[in-house]
Amino acid sequence: MVVLEFKVRAALQQSKAIDEAIRTSQFIQNKCLRYWMDNKGVNKYDLNKYCRVLAHNFKFANELNSQARQSSAERAWSAIARFYDNCKRKVPGKKGFPRFKKNCRSVEYKQTGWQLNLETRKAITFTDKKGIGRLRLVGSYDLHFYQPEQIKRVRLVRRADGYYCQFLLSIDVKIQSEPTNKTIGLDVGLSAFYTDDQGNKVDNPKFFRKEEKKIKRLQRQLSRKQKGSNNRKKTRQRLSKAHLKISRQRKEFSKGVAYSVIHSNDVVAYEDLRIKNLVKNHCLAKSINDAAWYQFRVWLEYFGRKYGKITIAVPPQYTSENCSSCGKTVKKSLSTRTHVCSCGCQLDRDENAAKNILRIGLSTAGHTGTLVRLRSPSEVEVNALGELTSTLTGAILLGQVDSLNKESPVTSLGD
């Protein structure tokens, strides 16, 4: 699934209609969640049927496209299904019980309720009763490369700097690339964005830290404004745009670095970090969120699938403490930035971790599908690889068999 996003040029009346459609979508999602809470045994299809009841009881709900109402019900069920899944997997701590939406910012249409201008592909018309009408699309993407039937869903998204239209295309993009014959292990950090196994570092841009002074000033101005006033709305808009700018900077930086790493290497090993647990440390939470490690990992895995490269998530336990030279565990605090081992190995702490990450990643790669059956303590047969079995003590070499052809013995030893 590929998402193409365009900026929308909308008049004032159209903007109000989009806001009304978003509020209606939020209303239906919350009503479906309440219906699930009040009735035992409700499933996904019951929520879709409940949308018709809401359309019959509320006029503004009937004005929204029927499939858009079903999309709102599916969003509610997605939160419910995630809660059920966490309960089945016995996730420790909170299971993520579904909550009511307070500030919904998008409405999603399926196959109906909209019509794309097939001549220019630069305009879209929404045909439901909300009165959105024709919207002009502004962007560099060309929809002429895709067939209209490939567009599975259309979203209208409200952000601080305006409205956007997203097209969800059912395509799988894969690009052939030349092998580089290189591998890399990555250790992400706060002082440097990442350090590889060769000691190369990429500086952490710290976008939020650079704009923190401006954001604090805007937050103080917002707190002084009278609630409900136009000045408060304007200040809140400026604050939202400042946060949106930082979010886009993080995204573009993570995307560019991940693209460079994937194009320069065939195998990329990185830590399988649990960011949710790391940010529980209130001393480091702001810096960890500012680093955007998870977003970087998402782009790594996306470009890996797109260009046919191998990406390996490695458990992070003891990667910083174990010596990359001899394997001995050297305990150290977070403030200790140099790894010093009794074997004579002395190097940067992050570089040592990156070497361990690459080693573990390479040791786990390539074993998928291999079936090992232990027949006896002295004989192991590897069926999937077609390797020769080990020879028993006292047996002649001609009695050795091939795992792919157990009936015929090996007759040639020169191969």
Poorly predicted spans = 368-415
Q: Can you write the helix and strand succession as a string? A: EHHHHEEEEEEEEEHHEHHHEEEHEEEE
What percentage of residues falls in helices of 4 or more residues? 25-40%
Q: Kindly, what is the distance between the CA atoms of the first and last residues, rounded to a whole number of angstroms? A: 48 Å
Question: How does this structure look, described?
Answer:
With 415 residues, the chain is of the alpha+beta class. 39% of the residues lie in helices and 21% in strands. It is built from ten helices and 18 strands. A seven-stranded antiparallel beta sheet has the order 2-6-7-1-5-4-3. It has a five-stranded mixed beta sheet with strand order 10-9-8-11-12. The protein has a two-stranded antiparallel ribbon with strand order 13-14. Helix 1 crosses helix 2 and helix 1 packs across helix 4.
Features:
single chain, 415 residues, alpha+beta, 7-stranded antiparallel sheet, 5-stranded mixed sheet, 10 helices, 39% helix, 21% strand, globular, disordered C terminus
Short description:
With 415 residues, the protein is an alpha+beta fold.
Give the SSE layout.
Elements: E1 2-9, H1 12-38, H2 44-57, H3 59-62, H4 66-88, E2 106-109, E3 114-116, E4 123-126, E5 133-138, E6 151-159, E7 162-169, E8 183-188, E9 192-196, E10 201-203, H5 207-224, H6 230-264, E11 267-271, H7 275-278, H8 285-291, H9 293-307, E12 310-314, E13 338-340, E14 346-348, H10 349-364, E15 372-376, E16 379-382, E17 401-402, E18 405-409
Parallel strand pairs: 8-11, 11-12
Antiparallel strand pairs: 1-5, 1-7, 2-6, 3-4, 4-5, 6-7, 8-9, 9-10, 13-14, 15-16, 17-18
Helix pairs in contact: 1-2, 1-4, 2-4, 5-6, 6-9
